[in-house]
Amino acid sequence: MTPDGKPETTPDYVGLVRFLITPFLQHPDALKVDCERSHQRVFLRVAINDADRSRAYGRGGRNIDAVRHVLTACAQVAGEIARLDIFGGAPEASDPAAHHSTPRDRHPPTSHPAPPKPRLRSEQPNLAPDLDADISHPR
Asked: What pLDDT does 88 receive?
């Protein structure tokens, strides 16, 4: 480590992305990875075969989320910020999970009933026993 706390070597982001994504692909020879660095930021662009896009994303985007988490962790150790973008054709229509490209798109909004509003003490029913009634009637 250098005196300012940064590691002496930088991660091989291209090799890491190839290592993580290749097992999901049926056409690994079509995988292209481009890495661009700018002011402690790393931009990785991955191009894959159109047929492999849904496999690379996985159900609900789990595969690509895992790759992004590993890249983020490596970049943090190196004092950098990493961003991963995947390019390829449109996902296959037969795999609905492939249409979710970002984590926020993964779960469509659902209509849930609104939670009940909190009541003021004056609005709440008195469930405590009336203690004054017991004192006024001696036993």
From this structure: 74
Say how many residues make up the chain: 139
- Which is nearest to 67 in space by CA: 29, 110, 30, 31? 31
Predicted pLDDT of residue 104? 45
Handedness of CA 88, 90, 95, 98 (dihedral sign): positive
pLDDT above 70 for 54 = yes
| Residue 56 three-state SS | helix
Sorted by sequence, the CB contacts under 8 Å of residue 21 that are 6+ apart come out as 31, 46, 48, 56, 67
How is 61-93 classified by DSSP, letter by letter? GHHHHHHHHHHHHHHHHTT-EEEEEEE-SPPPT
- Please tell me the pTM assigned to this model: 0.57
Q: Which residue, among 91, 51, 39, 48, has the nearest Cα to 67 in the 3D structure?
A: 48
Domain annotation for the chain: domains and CATH numbers: 1-105 (3.30.300.20)
Among residues 105, 100, 104, the alpha carbon closest in space to that of 53 is found at 100
